[in-house]
Write a structure and sequence with these properties.
Blueprint lengths: L1 H13 L26 H5 L11 H13 L17 H29 L7 H28 L5 H18 L4 H5 L3 H9 L9
Helix pairs in contact: 1-4, 1-6, 3-4, 3-8, 4-5, 5-6
Protein name: Lipoprotein
Keywords: Signal
């Protein structure tokens, strides 16, 4: 039973494996890292391609504020350590990881809210979709972490918690930095391209 519990926890941790090293804009680091990538691919991925629009000065200034506001290191986080013979320690490590990532997403969401709506025609719509994605992912991570902390190993509740943890981390693995999702709007995309602060790694 302990082996199955550990296996489930390992699978939950490995769900984030595609992220390892993806945040490495600054070169090779020591340990494996996971890109937080805090906006959903869903909205941006299904957006119909439109001709590139030239951004106004106001839009470029807004993009610069957003890029300067992004917290450093948001795309780097050590993956949780799994102890093969210690289910409790492993579940705590994964729960702590997910809680920490949820807090990072909260920081990004707050700073995007503080920047306000992009001064373009579809700016409010694009921003709202990004904020919803951040909120949904943070909530899913917190709920999954809570389930791991409270579930008893071997019980149906614990197995459900393992499945939820895996789903939450897979969702995290499909996310990108918010500035990239916001580029779904052609005018906002041009603003990010032209704003000097947005040239820094990880934005």
């Amino acid at each position: 039973m302990a082996r199955r519990a550990i296996a489930g926890l390992v699978l939950a941790a490995l769900a984030a494996a595609p992220l390892a090293g993806c945040g490495g804009d600054g070169g090779g680091g020591g340990g494996a890292t996971a890109a937080a990538a805090p906006t959903a691919t869903g909205s941006a991925g299904t957006t119909k391609a439109e001709p590139r629009r030239k951004a106004t000065r106001a839009a470029v200034a807004w993009a610069g504020r957003v890029c300067r506001a992004m917290p450093p290191g948001i795309t780097d986080s050590p993956l949780p350590k799994i102890k093969a013979q210690d289910v409790a320690a492993s579940e705590r490590a994964i729960a702590a990881y997910m809680t920490g990532m949820a807090k990072r997403l909260d920081t990004v969401r707050t700073r995007l809210q503080q920047a306000g709506s992009p001064p373009v025609a579809d700016g409010r719509t694009v921003l709202d979709a990004t904020l919803r994605d951040l909120e949904t992912t943070g909530r899913q991570l917190r709920d999954a972490a809570s389930g791991l902390r409270t579930g008893r190993v071997g019980t149906p509740a614990f197995r459900t918690a393992q499945a939820n943890a895996g789903a939450a981390m897979r969702r995290l693995g499909g996310y990108r930095p918010p500035t990239r999702a916001l580029r779904a709007s052609p005018a906002i995309g041009d603003a990010f391209t032209r704003a000097a602060p947005c040239a820094k790694p990880g934005v």
